[in-house]
Every structure is written in structure tokens, then in C-alpha cells.
Amino acid sequence: MEVICVSEDYDTETLSFWHKHGVIHPKQDTIYNINSQKKHSNGKIGVTVEEINNPKVPIDHHILRIIMMDVTFSINRFRKLNGEKVEAKELENVDIII
Q1: Which residues, in sequence order, are CB contacts of 88 under 8 Å at separation 6+?
Q2: How far is CA 14 from CA 19, 24, 57, in A?
Q3: How many whole angstroms separate alpha carbon 29 and alpha carbon 49?
């Protein structure tokens, strides 16, 4: 599914963490293709895009201590090319990150 990034406004702490781990984030007004999705424990949906291949990053886990995870970006940072919001049900045909 082709989408356009409508927000690359990230907090300083996130940008610093990503820079430390070599993570590239989507750029505003750039078209991307969603290739996977992940529903996070907070209920939010994150996606990866074909055009950006990021390394896994270390995340604190309350039980497992540190786990390596794929970086995802909030689906709310993207819109369909016609400007409409991307709905979770429209992501049924993309891979799911576990």
C-alpha cells in the first residue's frame, strides 16, 4: 500500500536513540510502501516501509530485560495518497511483525 508521510516530528530523545542505533525515519512529503505492521501492547499500530531497512534496536522489556525489536512508525504519521487516513483494517494484506 502506497502512503505519504505527513509527519516527521519526533521528540529529541527518540531521535537521539535512533541516531545512536543507525535508525532512519520516514521523511515528510515522501511516498512509501507499507510492508509490515505491528500492534503494540498499548494498542497502537506501527508499520515498516519497504524503502527503509533499519537494524533491530534494544528495548527494555519488563520480564526479558533487553530484547531486540524492529523499529516501527505510527500509522498516524502516514496518509493514503488521496489524503485519507489509513485504517487498521486496510493493513490486513501486509506482513505482521511478532
Answers
A1: 39, 45, 75
A2: 9, 12, 12
A3: 14
